[in-house]
Design goal:
With about 325 residues, the chain is α+β, with helices and mostly antiparallel strands. Helix content is about 40%, strand content about 15%. The chain is built from nine helices and nine strands. The strands form three sheets. Strands 1-2-3-5-4 form a five-stranded antiparallel beta sheet, covered by helices on one side. Strands 6-9 form a two-stranded antiparallel ribbon. It has a two-stranded antiparallel ribbon with strand order 7-8.
């Protein structure tokens, strides 16, 4: 179970007294968390998710919590944080920064069909449009500067062929100016397991803790790479076109985005190869991160390079 800081119902009593959410009835650890301690909390009034932050510094958390509150006010199905009686979202429990958010309905679908890909494309566009009016700014923590830093750090641990691939791709990406593309707040990690389905409707978009300001197209590429990739690494044309067309209907793509699309797909694949390679080769003492196989996204990057002239185009 991915709970790193234990919490009991007895501990919750005094902490919950600062909130107007009733008394705690049941508390259950959530297995899915890999960086935080997460719990399902049932009170006499409603159901919530309690999160204790284990690795993120307290100073960056208000950006994410106020972003979720902002998106929820705009009608998006995100976990809205609950304010305490002092109107603060962020508290302290068991010596950890802690937040209480509304529990959303649904479960993830790891094999989405064309209809669900279309729905997530429209939802992503809605998230981007709502984010344009969010007043706080914070750089995407896994943006271009981070990719350069991590590439230098992991290179000595890679095989010779991988080093060549990384060096060549980093040189290619140097010519890609993401800042010249439409900018805004991006989720940056909208993988299939971060979307909850309630029947055919999206019940929730979760895990905003990689969000930040960057090219909106980068977010589209991250999503397409996860939602629309076939077992062999290529993009499924029907799912890809459904997602892109639904997004485009809400926020039309620009000519500059159409031109940059193949390169941005590569940038998105590179980002996750680098993060997984860093987790694999450079684990930090005490860091609680689920280590995933970096070769999956290395192979995906190679496939995006090979398919550059044959990728599904933006509408």
């Amino acid at each position: 179970m991915s709970v790193f800081t234990p919490v009991t119902l007895e501990m919750l009593g005094p902490w919950l007294s600062r909130y107007a959410v009733g008394r705690a009835v049941a508390l259950e650890g959530i297995e899915a968390g890999v960086q935080n301690s997460n719990f399902f909390l049932t009170t006499t009034l409603a159901r919530y998710v309690l999160t204790l932050f284990e690795t993120l510094p307290r100073s960056v958390l208000p950006f994410y919590l106020h972003l979720m509150a902002h998106l929820a006010r705009h009608g998006l199905p995100v976990p809205a944080p609950i304010a305490d009686r002092d109107n603060e979202y962020l508290g302290t429990l068991a010596d950890r920064p802690a937040v209480l958010v509304m529990r959303l309905t649904g479960r993830s679908d790891m094999a989405p069909d064309v209809r669900r890909c279309a729905r997530i494309g429209a939802m992503l566009a809605g998230l981007h449009l709502a984010g344009l009016s969010y007043g706080r700014r914070q750089a995407h923590p896994r943006g271009a500067a981070w990719r350069r830093e991590i590439a230098d750090a992991v290179t000595p641990y890679l095989l010779a062929q991988e080093q060549t691939l990384l060096a060549t791709e980093m040189a290619f990406q140097q010519a890609l100016d993401l800042k010249a593309l439409p900018q805004g707040i991006i989720h940056a990690d909208l993988f299939r397991d971060n979307v909850l389905w309630d029947g055919e409707h999206i019940g929730g978009i979760i895990d905003f803790y990689f969000a930040g300001s960057d090219a909106l197209l980068f977010d589209v590429a991250v999503t397409v790479n996860d939602w629309c990739t076939e077992s062999g690494g290529g993009l499924d044309p029907q799912r890809t076109q459904a997602l892109l067309a639904a997004y485009h209907a809400e926020r039309p793509f620009t000519p500059a985005e159409r031109e940059a699309w193949p390169a941005v797909l590569r940038a998105a694949a590179l980002r996750f190869w680098l993060s997984r390679a860093a987790d694999f080769h450079l684990p930090r003492p005490g860091e609680m991160v689920l280590v995933k196989d970096p070769t999956e996204y290395r192979s995906l990057l190679e496939r995006r390079i090979a398919d550059a002239g044959h990728l599904p185009a933006l509408p």
